Amino acid sequence: MLWFIPGLLALIVGAELLVRGASKLALSFGLSPLVVGLTVVAFGTSSPELAVSVQSAWSGQVDIALGNVVGSNILNVLFILGISALIAPLLVHRQLIQQEVPVMIGVSLLLWALVADGGISRGDGLLLVGLLLAYNFVIIRQSRRENAAASEPALAADAAGGKAWDAHWLVQALLVVAGMDLLVLGAHWLVDAAVTLARRLGMSEAVVGLTIVAAGTSLPEVATSIMAAVRGERDIAVGNVVGSNIFNILAVLGISASIAPGDLVVAPSILAFDLPVMVAVAVACLPIFFTGHLIARWEGTLFLAYYAAYTTYLILDAAGHAAQSGFSLLMSGFALPLTTITLIVLAWRQRQHVRDAGQ
After folding, report:
1. From CA 111, how far away is CA 114, in angstroms rounded?
2. DSSP reduced 3-state for 202
3. Each residue of 84-94: pLDDT tens digit?
4. pTM for the structure as a whole
5. SS3 for 252?
6. What structural domains does the chain harbor?
């Protein structure tokens, strides 16, 4: 627990360096901030998940490897987008709605299908890694083509008036690397302390992976998205979350399954409950993002409330508490249906508003 404060400081400083370097690097190379958030920032902030899951898979702690990814993806959407939207309502780029969120939903459904037989094989892992390479090639090529003309005047203006210490692309790249290193180091310190404490309390590896490890390895995303929201880099704040979720499934699980001594066997509890929750959370992004291309503060509050409910369920279930069944009934019979109906109505009203405006 002595490493908690140093780890937190490393996360804060690392997030600031990463956001500053990545946002400026996007301009230097003709990439949009959204694509930088989906690639460089998302991959950098997901490197703790990669390190933890690969190490866990190689050492046979499969429940931690899988729980880390599933728990991180749930936390990324519900907690990170929720708290970022509370800081400042997040404008959602049209590309996210039309392309990236459907990709996130698609890879989440693909993962669910791959583990339906109870595990992830080496062949499944290689398939996921191949899809990752193809996805990155497409979005980078697409961004450079679409932003080539728009970047030229911006670069000219930056060259004319940009005498700042971080104006050169090499300095910006060094900021990105330094930020990533600090994020990984800070997350490592915090996860070590948290896992040691959780095991002393007798929690299972699956629950540790879904909660403590997932939260710890997602701290870089938390710090980066919050810092991006504060600095007004909203494309990076949202793109970081969506890109991290795609990266977690395609790269983290793909690489882990590719190098593991055997198949990654999925715990029945993860297959029956946590994976469906991860898929549902990914699908829930689409109507919320669709309503006015904005994640409003009340929607951020809704996300946070559902993350609190999810975590409460895991704790009650792990403890075998008598309140667990009643809590499940309340969520499945009232809260979730009410939220679903509300989102459908909002999406329908937004569609009618857009249609009326176009007439």
Report:
1. 5
2. coil
3. 888 877 777 77
4. 0.77
5. helix
6. 4-358 (1.20.1420.30)
Query: What phi, psi does 294 have (nearest 5°)?
Result: -150, 135
Assign 105 a pLDDT band (cuts: 50, 70, 90): very high
> With contact defined as beta carbons under 8 Å apart, do 139 and 133 qualify?
no
Find the angle CA(107)-CA(112)-CA(116) to the nearest 5 degrees: 145
Give me the mean pLDDT over the 332-353 stretch.
63
Cβ pair 327, 316 in contact under 8 A: yes
SS3 state at 264: strand
Q: What is d(CA 142, CA 156) in angstroms, rounded to the nearest whole number?
A: 22
Contact 23, 233 (CB under 8 A): yes
Give Dmax over CA atoms of the chain in angstroms. 67
Q: pLDDT higher for 44 or 85?
A: 85
3-state helix, strand, coil in the chain (%, to 5): 85, 0, 15
Beta strands per DSSP E along the chain: 90-91, 119-120, 264-265, 294-295
The gap from C-alpha 55 to its chain's centroid, in whole angstroms, comes to 20
Measure Cα distances from 49 to 14, 135, 213, 222, 263 in Å: 16, 20, 9, 13, 19
Instruction: Encode 86-143 in three state secondary structure.
Output: HHCCEECCHHHHHHHHHHHHHHHHHHHHHHHHCEECHHHHHHHHHHHHHHHHHHHHHH
- With cut-offs at 50, 70 and 90, classify the pLDDT of residue 281: confident
Q: Which residue has 């996130």 as its token pair?
A: 104
260 secondary structure, DSSP code: S
Q: Are 85 and 230 in contact (CB under 8 A)?
A: no
